[in-house]
Amino acid sequence: MNKRIYLDHSATTKVKPEVLEEMLPVYTEYYGNPSSIYSFGREAKKLVDQARMRVAKALGALPEEIFFTAGGSESDNWVLKGVSYANKNRGNHIITTSIEHHAVLHTCEQLEKEGFEVTYLPVDNYGMIRIEDLKAAITDKTILISIMYANNEIGTIQPIEEIGKIAKERNIYFHTDAVQAIGNVKIDVKAQNIDMLSLSAHKFYGPKGVGALYIRKGTKIANLITGGGQERGRRAGTENVPGIVGLGKAIELATENIDSYNEKLLKLRTKLINGVMEKIPYTRLNGHPEKRLPGNANFCFEYIEGESLLLNLDMKGIAASSGSACTSGSLDPSHVLLAIGLPHEIAHGSLRLTLGDENTEEDVDYVLEVLPEIVQRLRDMSPLYEKVKGGK
Amino acid sequence: MKDRVIIGMSGGVDSSVAAYLLKKQGYEVIGITMKLRSNDDFEQDSGRDSCCSLSSVDDARRVCDKLNIPFYVINFTEIFEEKVVNYFINEYFAGRTPNPCIACNKYLKFDALLKKADALEAKYVATGHYARIIHEKKLNRYLIKKSATATKDQTYVLYNLSQSQLERILMPLGDYTKEETRKIADELDLDVANKPDSQEICFIEDNDYGKFLENKRGDKIKPGKFVDTKGNVLGTHRGIVHYTIGQRKGLGIALGKPMYVVDIIPEKNLVILGEEDEVFKNELLATAANFLPFDTLQHPMRAKAKIRYSAKESSAWAIPTGDNRFKLIFDEPQRAITPGQAVVLYQDDYLIGGGVIVK
C-alpha cells in the first residue's frame, strides 16, 4: 500500500509518544498490584492516584469522584444499570435520546425488558434535542437523564449546561456520555451540573481498553462489576495500571492543548467541508454547521452507497467510516442519520471523516482530489443519477 | 496491471481455496463476505455454522489474512430479504417448492455482487462453485461444463446465468475434486480445511422450514382438506405450505395404505393425495427458460434432465412451447415432479439450460 491517511479519529486515535513514554515503565518496572502493601504495590497505587487527580482536574471534579473502568461502554452500562437498580424505589423512568451510542441504547432496551420505562428524545435536523421536549418528558418517576455530550457520527454538541440545570431543578440524575467530547470541548462538571460522565482514553490519544466514570459524590448508584475492593469498593478487578497511567497523561495533554487543537482542526475541517461541498454536487452536510466537534465532517452523497465509497477510499489509502460498524464489519444505515430525518436510501450514502492531530493540509488536499472522482464514478453507475442528469 | 477479482467468501473450504488459486494465477484478489441476514438473525449464536454466521465471517477473514488479500464484509441484507427470503415464502404459499440457492445465485452472487465488482473496479466475480465456465469460440458463447468431481458438481444451481454474467465469472475449482481442494487447504494450513460442507438452507434454523414459515406468516397458514384424486375428502391438513409433492411422511392421517402428496391447489387450499403410481409423471412444463449454447430453444432437442438438485439425470425430449417455456417428455416416468423446482438439462458434460417447473 502506498499513501495512507487516517481520517477516523472518532473511531480511535493513535497513542501519543508522551503517553506511551509514561506507560512503558509501568509494564516492566512499576508492575506491582496497587492493592499490595509492599513498595511495589505502593508505587503502582501512587501512579493510579496521580492519574485519578489528572482526570479530576480535567473535569473540574474531585479525585474521589473518578472511577476507572474498561472504557466508554462499561461506564455507560454502569450508569444506566447502576442508577436504575439503586433508585428503583424513587421511580423507573429514564430519559435519553434516539442518537446515543449503542452502549446506551442497547442497555436501555435491556432495562425496558426488566420493567424500566425509557423515553428516547427525538432530535432536530441538526441532531440537537429540544429543551422543551426534555421538560415535557420528565415525570415524577424520572430517575435519570442520559444525554451524550457530542455525537460520535455527526458531531453535534448538545446544550449540556441547560440540560444540567433542568436536571438539577427537578432533582434528577444527569449523566452525559462524553466519550467524543474530551479534548474537544471544555468541561466543568460542577458548573455544568453533570452528575455522571463517561469517557474513554483511546478517543483522545490514550490507550484502548481503559476509561473512567465520574460519579458526583452522594450519587446513589449500584456496582456493575463485583469482586474485590478496588476503586473504593465500587469497581472490582485489579487496576489496569498502565492503561490508567496512559489515560491520565492523555487527558492532561488533551485539556492543556484544547485551544490550539481546536484551532488546528477547525481550520482543516473548514477546508475539507468547503472543498467537498464545492466540488461534489448533490451533497449534504450532516449535523450542525457550528455546534459540532472541531474534527468532524459528515456528508451524504446522494445516489451512491456509503459502503462502496468507503471501500474505494480504503483502496486509495483513506481510512474513513460510514454508519457505525457492526460486529461482522459490515455497515447498516445509521440510526443517527435516520433520527435526523434522512430517508433510508440517503442515510446509506453517508461518509464520516474525522480529523485529528497528525492530519495536515496535504491530507485534506488528497481527499479533495480523490473523493470527487470516486463519487462521480459511483454515481455514473447509478440508474437514479442518470435520471437526475437527464433532468427528469 | 493485474485484473482485479472479488471473490465471495463463505468461510468454507471451497471459497477459501478458490481465493488462493486465483491469487496464484496472478489476479489481484479481494475477499468479500456477503452479509445476508440482519443483525438480529445474524448475531445470535445458534451453534450453527451456516454460510453467513458470525463465525463464518471470522473464518473468511482469517483465510484472507493468511492469503494476504483485503477482506470486506458487505451488507446485502435488504436484497436478500426481498429476492430470496420473500420469494421462498411466497412460493410455498403458491403451492410450489422453491429453490432459494438458485435465487441467491441469480440475484445476489451474480447480480448484486457483480454490481459491487463494478463499484470496486473489479473485472470478475469469483466463487467456489464446482463447475467449469468455458468460452466456446465457434459459438462465441460462454458454456458451463460439469466439474471434475461428479459427486460435487454444482452446475444445477447455475443454469440460469446469462451470457453477460458468465463473461465476468470465474470458478477456479471447476478442475478440482473436493478431495484435492481439501488437500490444498490442508497444505496451506487453513483452519477451514476440514469444515463440513453446508447442506441446509442458510437462513432456516434446524432445516425446519415449516417452523420458519409459521414464524414469518403463521396468520396466513390455514388448515384445509386432504382429498384423493377423485375428490373424496380424506382428512384435514395443517396448511398447504407444510407439504411438498411426493411427501409421504408427516401427513398426520392414517389411511391404511401408503399415500403421497401428488398435487397442491392453493386457490382451494387443497392437498391432493394419491397412491405411489400417481406420484410418477411422464412430462412437465417449465417456464423462465435459460439456455447456454443458444438464446432460445427453436426445435425439439434430446437432453438429460434433472428435476431437482439431488435427482438422477433422465433422458427426455425438450420441446419449445413459446413464451420462454418448454415441455419435457421423459422416456421413463419421473417421481415427484415438483412445481417451483428447477429442471436442468444436460448433454454429456455440458449444461444446456433449464427452467422452473410449472406443472
TrEMBL record, chain A:
The keyword Chloroplast does not apply. It catalyses: (sulfur carrier)-H + L-cysteine = (sulfur carrier)-SH + L-alanine. The modification N6-(pyridoxal phosphate)lysine is found at residue 203. One of its GO terms (cellular component) is L-cysteine desulfurase complex. [2Fe-2S] cluster binds at residue 326. Belongs to the class-V pyridoxal-phosphate-dependent aminotransferase family. NifS/IscS subfamily. Master enzyme that delivers sulfur to a number of partners involved in Fe-S cluster assembly, tRNA modification or cofactor biosynthesis. Catalyzes the removal of elemental sulfur atoms from cysteine to produce alanine. Functions as a sulfur delivery protein for Fe-S cluster synthesis onto IscU, an Fe-S scaffold assembly protein, as well as other S acceptor proteins. NCBIfam families: FeS_nifS, PRK02948.1. This is Cysteine desulfurase IscS. It comes from Lutispora thermophila DSM 19022.
Automatic annotation (TrEMBL), chain B:
This is tRNA-specific 2-thiouridylase MnmA. The lineage of its organism: Bacteria, Bacillati, Bacillota, Clostridia, Lutisporales. Coiled coil: none annotated. GO terms for biological process: tRNA wobble position uridine thiolation. Keywords: ATP-binding, Cytoplasm, Disulfide bond, Nucleotide-binding, RNA-binding, Transferase, tRNA processing, tRNA-binding. Catalyzes the 2-thiolation of uridine at the wobble position (U34) of tRNA, leading to the formation of s(2)U34. Residues 283-357 form the tRNA-specific 2-thiouridylase MnmA-like C-terminal domain. Signal peptide: none annotated. It comes from Lutispora thermophila DSM 19022.
